[in-house]
Amino acid sequence: MSNLVDLAAIPPFDVWGESVRARKVEGERITLAVVELAPGAVVPEHRHPSEQLGMVIRGSVRFTIDGETRDLEPGGTWRILSERPHAVVAGSDGAVVIDVFSPTRNDWSFDPLEPRQPVWPRDE
Description:
By secondary structure, the protein is an all-beta fold. It has one domain (about 10-100): Jelly Rolls (Sandwich). The chain contains no helices and eight strands.
């Protein structure tokens, strides 16, 4: 993979069924993902060894981390330490978020979907 790639050239994959799709860029020790959540999409409570940082860039989500729940809109961020429980529900218009994981998400070995234009970025 080239070190310089447009998001549209990265094939998406289903993370939690077709209502939660992601595209990822991986380094040796870090994963960057742009995740598209359909309206009302649910990411059930789960945990993983990777630490996770993220930010909403479009839409809204209700995020629960370690028992704390907040509604987040563009600019809202999160920090999830290793093995901490967390869950997400997308708002009525869905959401696009950026997630960063360290170390890489070795469990994200999903089959790629057909290439398609990402929801973000694009003109409003």
